[in-house]
């Protein structure tokens, strides 16, 4: 591709900093730049005219840009790249940047900075971007000269993918983007991260000594990043052990159709301990699998239950709970080496492990049937129950379409109905800051090669970043946005009702939690952004509406009126 440049006296090619940055991005395999431009980003926007293979994905607000890059990175399995606008734009994006940090999503985050030659005069839009970004990223730095771009940008991509994965930040002053330089863009380094953990024979002996039926496995989010679902399933099958998901997951990284899939753990420490009370040991794959939200007395790990771990993140091993043995290594590579060791340790006892496996399978079959029975029994409720909305939505979506979920009122029901061989089908809001789901679904579709995605989102959550649906329409992406509308902040009301000492509970008056005065018109909102929309009030209409939305191949909105429970 021909790039306009100036030759210096040595005959080398001199280019603007913005051109050098784009050369580096192409060398790193970047396809999309997510952002919302302002004055300080204009050199980069102008340089894109000469790089048609790099596509700028326009978000209408920076929080949406961050979540789009997050959804893309999780779906594509590579860092997302985004460009924000000075201090204000970085501030707008901080909520979703904190989400990405908690979810350990690899992002290379950049923001335009004022021309450094006049920062001494405190110009408009100037701010200390490095200090603003630092709490939400692995590291933050400002580029001082165009010659620094190759080292710092390649470093950013490397470090975003280094365990623990996560976002990094670079501030890009306007004069650096305009500065001429002959520096080479340099190719990216190749770094092999699939290291095999040490201590695997000892781990095999430990797990083989646990009585069949007394070991549980937790498949954490890191299983998804490592592409290790098949290896986790093989370990579970050998040991006849149930596989739990994290208490508050970013992903469900295990095939939900597998007979040993036990579902996700609860989010209160006392409830987690009760769930794990029948086990002598837990084999946790990946870190931070026992996240709690609200305080409850006692540990999430019941007394006498040992924790064994494998994770690429050495800082997470033994961080909260004592472990007799935990190993540092890439989960997939380590389990591949571990499986033959484990098979030898349990040789001759396959029958007892098979019996344990059959018990778990029967229990999970009963659990699924009970959930289905409740949903089917409530199909005729006058107002659609959350469990019914979840059941019909999952039935309509099927096993092969990606789901991005930020509908807290129905999320636990949705996960109970999932039944897919695809361990990457489902993603969820791990960071907890609302406004992630709709833009993340846009990014997920791009990360999957513009494949269909269904976004489940609560009515309250949809109002944090509704402008993301315009990007879906603009990019002609097949994303169906399903708004679960109960006209209130239902989760908050539910918590308050459980607090008998609250005044709100005693008088039935919940301040700042109703979204019905005036009623919000989500149909009009969708239409204003260029999407078709429909409102569903009968359970029997849910599946057909979602299936029609998916079949349209276009961005669309399905609003489901659900009961507040």
UniProtKB/TrEMBL annotation:
One GO biological process term is: carboxylic acid metabolic process
**Per UniProt, which keywords does this protein have?**
Thiamine pyrophosphate
- Which is one Pfam family of this protein? TPP_enzyme_N
The molecular function terms in GO held by this entry are: acetolactate synthase activity; flavin adenine dinucleotide binding; magnesium ion binding; thiamine pyrophosphate binding
Which superkingdom is the protein from? Bacteria
Residue span(s) of domain Thiamine pyrophosphate enzyme TPP-binding: 432-560
Residue intervals of the Thiamine pyrophosphate enzyme N-terminal TPP-binding domain: 16-118
Thiamine pyrophosphate enzyme central domain: which residues? 217-337
Family assignment?
Belongs to the TPP enzyme family.
Q: What is this protein called?
A: Acetolactate synthase large subunit
Q: Could you tell me which species this protein originates from?
A: Novacetimonas hansenii ATCC 23769
Taxonomic lineage per UniProt? Bacteria, Pseudomonadati, Pseudomonadota, Alphaproteobacteria, Acetobacterales
